[in-house]
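In response to a reviewer's request, we include the raw inputs and outputs for one of the modeled complexes. The two entities were modeled together in a single run.
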Amino acid sequence: MASNVKPRVRVPGKAAKGEIVEIKTLISHNMESGRRKGKDGKLIPRSIINKFEVTFNGKSVFSSDWQPAISANPYMSIFAKVDESGEFAFKWTDDGGSIYEKTSKITVS
Amino acid sequence: MKFFWRDITLAVATLSVAVGVGASSANAADWGPYQVEDRRSGYTYMTDESRAMQVDTFQNPGMLWVEEGADLWTTVDGKAGKSCSTCHGDAAESMKGIGARYPVVDEGMGKLKNVEQQINSCRGKNMEAAPYKWESKEMLSLTSYVNHQSLGLPVSVKVDGAAAPFFEKGKAFYYERRGQLDMSCSQCHEDNAGNMVRANILSEGQINGFPTYRLKWQKPGSTHRRFRGCNKQVRSTPFGYGSDEYVNLELYVKWRGRGLPVETPAVRN
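The model returned the following structure tokens for the whole complex.
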């Protein structure tokens, strides 16, 4: 179980209707790959974020499965076309079953 | 006639290639603030992707530690019931320039101290709190936060007066061969900066971006961790974190990067 996981997202506050906006996300997570050995010579159990999902007003806009080769503190940027005001919800799920969530509003004019 | 046209085309093609090469190398040589005279920040040896990662304060993973440091700055710890901000107030004001001018001579100790040592001395004397371990998350966070307040300021350490003997010791360390490979710092970072060492490109070994987020480490590391790594690579026994040898070396290496901007937290491969 990773400790002190802090998600960060950056979504533009305002956008024009139909505009394609860049959304940036970063989460502090040590993404233990399960391949490393500890001082006692035993494998350190895998503990990574294995799923990252983005929804907009409850509708899925992006979803990805993550694998052990993804670095610690993973950064992910996506592009989305926005037609209406609403809320982006971000959800990271890790091997321990912990869920980290963050939401961010956008106003479309 | 046919031959004539082909020659013209070839000549034009050659000309445009020459112009193209000339233009791109001129661009590559212009590093803006990241180069002062013949001194180049490690930034200039990175790939475009790593540079973009560093410059974008959101994408830069080292900023996670800076944010953590900002929290620690205002967290009360120790028996005295104080936080850093109790005495120092707003770090943006009080810590500005620290990252550019440390290590400095501490008259009480009669030797150099760097930012990490200053933090622990403050924690001991003023906060009556337990010192942070050198490479702990707390120490890296707070050092990153303090040094980050000097972002963009030119490195300017004092090497004369009381600091002079320590500077000379640091310089001697830099040129002294050590380890089974019998190598000095200068042989890689002075004589061969820009050349490959196996799969890695050697930089000048500037420390203006420390604590630096190293992609290989997947976290930030202190200057002394970097020194220890280098010493191990030439198969010499590394000195301890915060040892006099390394603090002296830190002053000398920092002086080598005088004028370069503080980049904390820098991103390196």
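As requested, we also summarize the result in words. Chain A has a mean pLDDT of 91. Chain A touches chain B at residues 4, 6, 8, 10, 24, 26, 28, 30-31, 71-73, 75, 77 (CB under 8 Å).
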